Amino acid sequence: MSHLGNTHSSLNVNSLRDLARKELTNVLDSVRGKKCLVLDPNISGPLSLIAGFSLLKEHGVEKVHYLQQGPLETELKSLIYICRPQLNYMKYIAEHIAHHQKDVVSNYEYNLFFVPRRTMICERVLEEAGITIGEYHLDLIPFEDDLLSLELDNTFKELYLDGDYTSIYYAARALMKLQTKFGLIPRVIGKGDCAKHLADMLLRMRKEVAVDDPSSTLSVSQNVDSLIILDRSVDLISPLCTQLTYEGLIDEVFGIRASHVEVDSAIVGPASQKSAPAAATSTSNAASTTSQPSTPAKKKKIPLNSSDRLFVQLRDMNFAVVGGVLNRVARRINENYEERHQAKTVMQIREFINKLGGLQSEHQSLRTHTGIAEEIMAYTVTPEFNKALEVQQNLVAGIEINLQNEHIEEMINRQVPILQVLRLLCLLSLVNGGLKQKSLEFFKKEILQTYGFEHLQTLLNLERLNMFVKQGSASSKFNYVRKHLQLIVDEVDEQSPQDISYVYSGYAPLSVRLIQCVTKGGLTPISNPVGANAAANPIGTGGAAKGIVGWKGHEEALKMLPGKTFDEVQKLDDGAIHSKKFAQGQQPRVTLIFFLGGCTYTEISAIRFMAQQDEGQREYVIATTQIVNGNSLLSSVMQKMDNLGHSAGGNF
Amino acid sequence: MAPHPTTDWNQLQDRFYRKQEIYAMLWKQLDLSKFMIAGAPYGGPIAMIRDDKKVILLQKQQPVKPTIYLYTSAGKLMEQLQWDKGRIVAMGWSESEKLVVVLEDGTIRLYDINGEYTQLSLVKEAKEYSVIDCQIWGTGLVALTGNFKLIVLTNFEEPRPHLMADPGLNEPPHSWTVIPPQYTLSRHVEVLLATGSTILTVDTKESQDQLLQQGPFTKMAVSPNGKFLALFTSDGKLWVVSTDFQKNLSEFATKSQVPPQQLIWCGTDSVVLYWDKIVLMVGPFGDYIKYSYDDAIYLIPEIDGVRVISSDKCEFLQKVPNVTEEIFKIGSTAPAAMLFDALDHFERRSPKADENIRSIRAELAEAVDACTEAAGHEFSQYWQRNLLKAAAFGKAFLESYNADNFVDMCQTLRVLNAVRYYEIGIPITYTQYTRLTPDVLIDRLINRHHHLLALRICEFLKMRTDRVLIHWACAKIKKSTDDEETICHMIVEKLINKPGLSYAEIANTAYKVGQPKLATRLLDYEPRAADQVPLLMSMQEDELALIKAIESGDTDLVYLVMLHLKRKLPLPEFFRIINNKPMACNLFEVYCKQQDLKLLADFYYQDDRCVESANITILESYKQKDLNERTNKLKIALKSYQDDKEHAFEAKAVDENIRLLQVQAQFEKEMNQQLVGLPLNETVHKCITTNNPNKANKLKSDFKIPDKRFWWIKLKALVEMRDWPELERLSKSKKSPIGYEPFVEECIKAIQHKEAIKYITKCDPAVRPGLFIKIGDFKAAGQEALALKDIQLLREIQSKCTDQIIAQELDAYIAQLSSK
């Protein structure tokens, strides 16, 4: 299953990477001579997608440190800090400087570059520290041709719990930058209060852009005809479900950061240096030079991106079929190796040798993914996993809800990790529109007594987020949405899926269904006896429905979901031009999808599946504030226990 | 018809120089010799003040008080400034056309063309010993103090004056000059001082003697490109060397012992010397041209020539540009000359036109280019027109000629002619214009308040008109005496159809001239919320500033305003302002959570947000090491929760938490175990594993632990202790609320299959086979399956079974079932 960007992408996302790389070299070159780079740990991952260590070295970086508490020891006198504008980082830097000044001959030169921009609030902390401050405008980082991420770690908590809209501002600036590069996006459609906020800000910034850069008058984009902004708060159900695609499960089991996964080196077998793609060498190099104490258990960082052809094939598949594919690939590679016996003439031997390199790297990739898949398999066969999955699937399908309460209670009694329990409890609350007072209080008490009273704050936070609440008077709105948008598909063919619901083995992510509504006006034809006339359905994929449809026909369902709904048209002053341009264009149109508050790998897979169905007609490019899963979403709003001097929560 | 261009040409060896009259001066017969003068390059203005060292006949109409006059190049008075400060040491012009006036006491004033000034001062040294001389260039200056030290100021915008290396002089230098930083190797300013018979090169680090013997040098000048140095020796010799003193370029004996009043460069290849009423231009090979004047004159160096200001006219002296020479030189047969000639023939209907064109067919394109360029170098519109005509004529014979140059030149000439018009008085040449750029020219025009012309030029050249309009509006506000209503109306009317135009600067001007109301009104038109904020803050419009910052969506800006307000206002007032603004409150809370919990508590308290207060208090309680402190904090939180009906559960939970902590503390003493802070489940677990079942039971009843959970805790604890008898006792104590499967599972986890079997038999028959399989007892599994009469299951068991004997038994079972 190849994803859309690989063969032909109408939107040249790579130019963004080039831009970011160029700016990075400018940042590095702004300081002369040899220098020491001090990186925000959260930025080093994304940065490795922009530039390898060799590039840093070419521009005079001798050493890389992580920005953390405690003194910074280095012989290099020129320091470049690159970090997010966060107050705690400013304190660390101030500490570094204070520490250096104790020396008699402290002639260090400090340079600080904020990502993506400087803020007054941070500069104030360093006011008199004698530090040169600049900006590194790294915003949307291209992960793949169809995937961009702002890599802002905590947007979900900031937006919906704290009401801190900084990330909306950053998102708006990044989208404006995108529009200045690729043209004005004529239609902005979306759902959710924060999404609306972002859309409004975009419309306003467009007016302002004329002031900022007098020479640029935005022209309408040649190929991007729509921007869909989805607020995470609109669909909290999907991320809470266990992701069942290969990449999704890797994220659930190991956790993926900046498209790299860290696993025990034993799992993936001995590394052959040749096969490791360029990015891996660069990052491992960068890591080895950092002052970070190396972890005793040998961990290996594995890049997960489209340069690994096998991974491209596997990433969006339901995990159920991954084993089979690995098997087939193994057989094929073996056959290819066998070819050497058939090679008789010198010519044939040379031909084989030429293929050998590719074969070996393929082999290594196979070994890696077999190792990972085995590890995931071991996890998915445990009764705990299956029990949780069953409860979760019954909940989203609305089957025997009350019975699920008992199952969750038992899980608490078994003291499974709190995140797992909260995921299910939040699901329970979300699909039912809340819990009955009695059972709500029962579960709250169970959690506090089992996992610690500190979680009182966690529960209050979840209540504030509307994720774990008392049932309102109205009956579950989700029932209507589920039915209207056909979120549950009973027959799923994981081998050759017909519908996006394959990513959760039967549940179609609400968020992506909404996107389908907007782009097609309806759902894809699914192998469903009721939808037998789907092929004849004029709003299905079959027809040449090229334009964006919008929310029409789904108003009722949208009312059931939280947040405002909007559909704005961005017009040029001379509106005539753009209709003409679009009429001639034969190439597929592009929809940009922006997830505010993060999206999951399964949602990405589902959208790629849509893209495949719409091949030649519509392409999708996904932009997100960050990539999340149920665990990262919930742990960001959990009461942090680090400073409490003991470990709270269940012990297994 | 205008006189032929060559009439004002003079030959100097192999090249020609021309001196063209540009303006007849508008001023009334000034005796320039009595003034201290500074002329700005690029056809800029001329500043003059009566030189107090020179005797002057006091006339009635002249004011007694010294005055600085600012004239255009055409001698039109732009501004006069009453001079009431001390003695002026030097005057000069900066790049941004500001008049730099240096005073004896080291004060520096920068006047713009409208007489507004900013003031800087040099280091203490200057004040103590006073400044005796000063050299000014486009962006900075070097001052020479009374104790012969040098002070450099490299950037007027960011003045950081500092001392240069000590040249060690004991007497004033014979002459001196500076090489601006952009022309030196080190990119730092260098000073050349003539002392004794030599020259010292001084920069910030060191002073270097060039060890020359030809001195003393009484006058010196650096060429416009910084490469050459012209020196005048006391015995009347003009000597040109490279500025690094490595190359000797030319020598010329003037036979005058008196040093010239002015020694300047004309372009980069000839030097102009001026003695009273005599101008001598010396070429690189010792040839010279002499011009005589009736009155005193003043020379202003330009990058491509010299502007000669005399009492009645303004002239421009330059080397005739190559293309011009090519076309107009008598007897020239260059293609461009042929083309120009062809046009002449064509207009006279002479067939020679065709002949001419034919003869230069191959070089016609270059000829057209040359004519186009030559048009640019002409001041006379007659010749501009003729040259362009010739270019257009030649162009017609070319099939694929890119006419961009031609069109650009036509446009440029329109602009040049417009600004050269004597009322405007900027005699800028084409070369200067391309160096200066149209943008800067527009700036200069608006500084002179020629807004309409600037606007027209912008529109003509398709440039943004914003800054012209903004400057116009600001000027209007400064000048106007009308009421705010009229001014506002007038400005908005003119600017309203310019979307995206920034009003912030206009509003700022209004505020500065003391029209805050007008400022507020204008600011409303500013499209960018972010730009409104700083002004609103300085206008004390605190709340409005906060609202606009929120509107901009830029959270950092919101912080900026909030922190400003917090510093400025008493706390209650600050809280009042942010209270009804959710976004401000949210950001404030986020900030406080990281920086200042105490402040946050105050904030919640004043707003009666008891639940949030309680949350904070609880957060604080975790930080308390001491148990009493901790419970006290929790009690405060409890109180707050109790105040809110909606939070009965939280109140109960906190109450429970307090009780738990107390019990834990008590048990801790009794059991000698660390318990405080553990979750309840773990506490119970610890009680059991340390053989305190009564304590565990007490906790169960005190905290109403449900049976199910309690059994689970016990089960896990007992398995952990491997206390199998006790576990069995538990299982038999009463019917297990959690069933017996968990018992089996936990035993299997502890790899106690024997123990597990005990409990399998207690389980539901349906699950027994599966459990037996788990512990590998296929025989028992088979028996159970037989009891269930489940063939399918039996087959499954058989397939898993590895033991041959048991497998046979299983076969028998299957046969038994299938026979029925």
Automatic annotation (TrEMBL), chain A:
InterPro entries referenced in this protein's UniProt entry, alphabetically: Sec-1-like_dom1, Sec-1-like_dom3a, Sec1-like, Sec1-like_dom2, Sec1-like_sf, VPS33_dom3b
Amino acid composition bias (Low complexity), ranges on this chain: 276-296
One BP annotation, GO: vesicle-mediated transport
Stretches that traverse the bilayer: none
Name by which UniProt lists this protein: Sec1-like protein
UniProt xrefs under Gene3D superfamilies: 1.25.40.850, 3.40.50.1910, 3.40.50.2060, Syntaxin Binding Protein 1, Chain A, domain 2 (3.90.830.10)
Organism encoding this protein: Rhizophagus irregularis (strain DAOM 181602 / DAOM 197198 / MUCL 43194) (Arbuscular mycorrhizal fungus)
Disordered: annotated segments: 276-302
Similarity comment: family membership: Belongs to the STXBP/unc-18/SEC1 family.
UniProt-listed Pfam families: Sec1
Domain of life: Eukaryota
UniProtKB/TrEMBL annotation, chain B:
Alphabetical keyword list: Protein transport, Transport
One cellular component term from this protein's GO annotations in UniProt: bounding membrane of organelle
GO molecular function: actin binding
GO biological process: endosomal transport; intracellular protein transport; vacuole fusion, non-autophagic
Domain Vps16 N-terminal: 5-408
Domain of life: Eukaryota
Residue span(s) of domain Vps16 C-terminal: 501-803
InterPro entries, alphabetized: VPS16 (IPR016534), Vps16_C (IPR006925), Vps16_C_sf (IPR038132), Vps16_N (IPR006926), WD40/YVTN_repeat-like_dom_sf (IPR015943), WD40_repeat_dom_sf (IPR036322)
Family: Belongs to the VPS16 family.
Protein's job: Essential for vacuolar protein sorting. Required for vacuole biogenesis, stability and to maintain vacuole morphology.
Protein name, UniProt field: Probable vacuolar protein sorting-associated protein 16 homolog
